[in-house]
Design brief:
Strand order of the largest sheet: 1-2-11-10-3-4-6-5-7
CATH topology: Rossmann fold
Shape: globular
Largest sheet: 9 strands, mixed
CATH superfamily: Vaccinia Virus protein VP39
Number of helices: 4
Strand content: 15-25%
Bound molecules: S-adenosylmethionine
Order of helices and strands: EEHEEEEEEEHEHEH
Structural class: alpha/beta
Number of domains: 1
CATH class: Alpha Beta
Distance between the termini: 70 Å
Radius of gyration: 19 Å
Helix content: 10-25%
């Protein structure tokens, strides 16, 4: 029987699949939680990424899967955080809202939302995270300023999300795009499993996670202290 993915890439403990997550999901080992930014079902076609010198892709092509309503039900069996959930709230049970304030009142005339919402299947207080991210005004410049995906999320935002799932060791992002959740997992010491349908974004996700794995980590055990016998 053929595998449901086109490529399977291991980067340290992390595993990335190129293919349709709905086909890959039944073949996955155990995961503890889902953190994802799926296609919202809003027929997104033109993003802020544009075709500028910092962009490797033509971001004006339609986002895969965004032409039909998003069905969250396959993911609700795990503890999960789903971005864009205001677009499919009617298909969600009771949960809490996480809001990202993009501090967009600096540019109130533009066409970008000032706030984005995620939903978590947990009955707890709603929370808000503030980080500047409007048009060219971004508090975080990932990839040395290159935007890997037209709807790329800030790494710090996804790290904030992981803080609401403190016991989850293995995190699944079935719609990983350029792999931002994966980079956040590397930074937070979680294991990451990701799926992406688009080969170009899959490639970018692999590169970003590999690059993040090469970064020296501040939380590595301190090297043993040198004996100072010579001074005695
Ligand atoms: C909103 S984007 C995620 C962007 C991501 N948050 C980032 O920071 O780069 C959703 C992604 O899901 C992918 N996608 C759509 N349908 C899919 C499917 N059935 N399986 C896997 N990936 C899919 C799209 O190609 C798109 O890159």
């Amino acid at each position: 029987m053929s595998s449901p993915w086109k490529r399977r890439v291991e980067i340290g403990p992390h595993v990335l699949f190129e293919g349709d997550c709905l086909e890959i999901l039944p073949t996955l080992g155990p995961v503890d939680a889902v953190v994802t930014d799926p296609p919202y079902g809003i027929a997104y076609a033109k993003g802020a990424g544009g075709r500028g010198k910092h962009s490797r892709r033509n971001h004006s092509q339609p986002l895969k899967g965004d032409d039909k309503p998003f069905n969250p039900s396959p993911f609700l069996r795990w503890p999960c955080i789903l971005w864009g959930a205001n677009h499919y709230a009617a298909r969600l049970p009771h949960g809490r809202w996480l809001a990202w304030n993009k501090l967009g009142d600096l540019e109130p005339w533009d066409s970008f939302s000032d706030v984005e919402f995620a939903w978590q299947n947990e009955r707890a207080a709603d929370r808000i995270f503030s980080l500047l991210w409007k048009g060219i005004c971004q508090a975080e410049k990932a990839n040395g300023g290159e935007r890997g995906h037209p709807t790329q999320k800030p790494i710090a935002l996804m790290q904030w999300c992981l803080g609401f799932l403190p016991k989850a060791q293995t995190i699944l992002d079935p719609f990983m795009g350029s792999g931002t959740t994966g980079v956040a997992c590397v930074r937070e010491g979680r294991r990451f499993v990701g799926c992406e349908l688009d080969p170009g974004y899959f490639e970018i996700a692999c590169e970003r996670i590999e690059r993040e794995m090469r970064q020296p980590r501040l939380d590595l055990p301190a090297p043993p202290k040198l004996e100072q016998e010579a001074l005695l």
